[in-house]
């Protein structure tokens, strides 16, 4: 049985390139062009495969771009579960300015899905002959999909005895947490938007994460903090690690890589501390690759060996 299923409601073809200098009006000749399958859950599936795991990826796909998306995933050995959509799958593109190494990211909106199309995604998960242990729901929702889609998916996950791991933002995140998830992975900006709090200090982050856990909205909160590292909170475990200093080439896919490392290591039986440490290493490794390329396993393993998690002071809870 494949233990992990990813669900990506707004997949894309990610195009990346570089140009000598980004300036207005002029034609900008590009080099280093590459096309990758994209969207939150798609990237998680690709990263899990790179790390040595196995995963199924469910996503709506339409038109020539949707056909190409499946072809690109097939080339990477990802088992696809495409759900036919009438509208063309979107594209996004990233351009690197070689003069100053700035990165420009352009995300095109997803085409609307009909009620029949998004409901077909839920029905397909519910009907899986071999239900997964983990469902990774990651990325944005395209037009036409209700804000409570991930909440509905969480209820489907409960019916098939799967644990849902969530990485989204805005109203979709808030609605899913009302239904309850196993793990949620916001970044700091998303966490501030969710709580409505400034969350300026480290203690604020931890208290806000604890509040979600104790309210029963998430069993685990994994908060990514960019160059400040990451924090993980559950009822029994509080873990904090600083960022690993590296020279950043591209930040594209770092959050997806973090989540992939975390879910994969949990799926093979690692405890939270080791899985968290591996997640930080995987997210950091993604910073070392250009454009839309994901982390390399050799970089992840090297960084993992460097990293030891820092435990918060004892609060009469069990520590690992």
UniProtKB/TrEMBL annotation:
GO terms for cellular component: cytosol. Keywords: ATP-binding, Kinase, Nucleotide-binding, Transferase. Residues 13-293 form the Carbohydrate kinase PfkB domain. PROSITE patterns: PFKB_KINASES_1. InterPro entries: Carboh/pur_kinase_PfkB_CS, PfkB_dom, Ribokinase-like, Tagatose/fructose_Pkinase. One of its GO terms (molecular function) is 6-phosphofructokinase activity. Pfam families: PfkB (PF00294). PANTHER family: 1-PHOSPHOFRUCTOKINASE-RELATED, ATP-DEPENDENT 6-PHOSPHOFRUCTOKINASE ISOZYME 2. Belongs to the carbohydrate kinase PfkB family. This is Phosphofructokinase. It comes from Microbaculum marinisediminis. The lineage of its organism: Bacteria, Pseudomonadati, Pseudomonadota, Alphaproteobacteria, Hyphomicrobiales.
């Amino acid at each position: 049985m494949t233990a992990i299923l990813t669900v990506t409601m707004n997949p894309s073809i990610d195009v990346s390139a570089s140009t000598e200098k980004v300036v207005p009006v002029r034609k900008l000749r590009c080099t280093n062009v590459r096309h990758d399958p994209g969207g939150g859950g798609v990237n998680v599936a690709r990263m899990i495969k790179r790390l040595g795991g196995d995963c199924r990826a469910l996503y709506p796909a339409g038109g020539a771009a949707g056909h190409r998306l499946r072809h690109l995933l097939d080339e990477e050995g990802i088992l696809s579960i495409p759900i036919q959509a009438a509208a063309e799958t979107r594209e996004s593109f990233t351009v690197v300015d070689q003069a100053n190494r700035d990165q420009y990211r352009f995300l095109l909106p997803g085409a609307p899905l009909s009620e029949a199309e998004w409901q077909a995604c839920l029905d397909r998960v519910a009907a899986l002959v071999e239900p997964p242990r983990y469902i990774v729901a990651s990325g944005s929702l395209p037009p036409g999909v209700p804000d409570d889609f991930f909440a509905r998916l969480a209820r489907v996950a409960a019916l098939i005895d799967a644990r849902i791991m969530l990485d989204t933002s805005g109203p979709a995140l808030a609605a899913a947490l009302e239904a309850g998830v196993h793990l949620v992975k916001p970044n700091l900006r998303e966490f501030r938007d969710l709580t409505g709090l400034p969350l300026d200090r480290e203690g604020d982050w931890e208290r806000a994460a604890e509040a979600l856990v104790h309210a029963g909205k998430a069993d685990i909160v994994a908060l990514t903090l960019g160059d400040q590292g990451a924090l993980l909170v559950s009822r029994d475990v509080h873990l904090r690690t600083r960022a690993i200093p590296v020279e950043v080439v591209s930040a594209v896919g770092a959050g997806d890589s973090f989540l992939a490392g975390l879910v994969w290591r949990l799926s093979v039986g690692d405890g939270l501390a080791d899985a968290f440490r591996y997640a930080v290493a995987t997210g950091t490794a993604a910073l070392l690759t250009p454009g839309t390329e994901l982390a390399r396993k050799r970089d992840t393993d090297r960084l993992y060996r460097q990293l030891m998690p820092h435990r918060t002071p004892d609060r009469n809870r069990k520590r690992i």
